[in-house]
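User: Fold this, then the next.

Assistant: Folding the first:
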Amino acid sequence: MKLIFVYNAHSGRFNAYLDSLHKILSPTTYSCKLCKLTHGTLRERTLWKDFREKSKFQMEFLHKDEFLEIYSYSESKDLDFPVLIKEENSQFEVLIAKEDFDQFKTEKELIAAINLKTKLL
């Protein structure tokens, strides 16, 4: 089983620079809650990094353009990003949807939700 985290952002160094600038200049309008929760302006948040490194699950982190290019998940065209998807035996299931991400205030809340969802697996 693999957890696929998909950011509501495009890949590439220039896009990363623009995203960081956007987070600084207008944080309330930044469109990727997954990125807000897991990364500060310049680097990954310590609590999130510890969680990720100690997780028993395989994790993959993709930007939305990378995800749409790599995976032919039939409902991918209807997904709102960010999203957390479970992939198992070539089957996909949304574990945390954009609407869920929008409710989280801290990375602790995100981690708790992931722990709860994966405990049910």
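Now the next one, as you asked:
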Amino acid sequence: MLQHAIALAKPENPAVTATDPSSRDVRMRGFQQRSSFAAALAWLDAWLDGSATRHAGQTPQLVDLAQCVGRILATDVVSSYDVPQFAKAMMDGYAVQAAAVAGAAAAAWRVLEEIGVCLPGSGFDGAVAGQSAVRIMTGAPLPPGADAVLPVEQTRREEGRLLAVASVAAGKHVGRVGEDIVAGETVLRRGRRLRPQDAGLLSSLGVADIPVVPAPQVAICVTGDELLPMGAPPRGYRFADSNGPMLRGLVERDGGRVVLQCQARDDREALRAVMHTGADVLLVTGGSSVGQEDHAPVVLAEEGELAIHGIEMRPGRPTGLGCLRETLVVLLPGNPISCLCGYDFFAGRAIRRLGGRPLAWPYRAVAGTMARDLPSQPGRVEYARVALDGVRVEPLAISGSSLLSTATRADGFLVVPAERAGLAAGEEVEVWLYD
């Protein structure tokens, strides 16, 4: 089984940052050197560790119950109450003393005296004793003196009398005080991703404002003179932005909050103007490679730190990493599959970490068997889109970084580690499912 590529050993010296920004300008010169995948990941994790230290003690964000599902709990939740707080009926029937119906059967019934009714939300003003019984509904408090609930189907009426035609043990069909939760119990631990049932539990404990880890603020800047707005039909030599909506969906999936989404021209000053967002993470897609109009690396080096530019991976080689003050900047290629790959390996990892979520991919992994050979280049991590036919794994593409349909047709992807020269037909692999 293939191991996740990000588990690769990290080198002692993950990255070297040039002091002169102009020395990092590789436009029209090509990448003079590229960072290993492990080095890029090591730099990112070191930056995230530093960010965690800088943000230690950050005040949790309070959200109401209607907004808490999917958020990360910032503190333990300790119950102030027993749940339930009172003994209650778990069946519709009659609150009785078990001794009063001991030995009752269809042919040996016991006569009961009905003395009242007890409904949910209200108690019974009186007590059960001897052969008396109180009609009770599910969820209503058990009247004083009663120790069991006789289900209604175990009774019958005859000539105006209430008859018990079965016995019931003491404590039967009764919810005990604290049976679900005991006061002082820690019911949810910090770091938990809250589920709908958690919201219900919190509500039952009277917790209306939920302390959660603040969602990382993410800015998305899509660059390119050739781009039209999202969803616009192609026109001439221009086409609609596809990376913007894809990235927004990925960011929101990973718990980030998009605070800015914009398009910028292939112009250094236009890009410089959108760099200073103040967001926790800035994603710049397009303009990250070595072409004449690829200004993003140069601007980042001038305004902040360009730590990584060019990574030994395919697709996504032009991916870059750096920071601008307290903002992590991830430079993503403009080709959609390269953009997706760079996001999956680096940006998504950062957003999840900053939001208190697990670093692991939010994809489900399944085992499969290679249907045919998949060659790759040693020293480079490969991200291959694949289709599944049962357990057979059919590679669709490693190259073709501009062909977004290869990801929509794929069931998922697999990762070929840098130390491998490919995968062989019949080899067992791990596939990460897009669904």
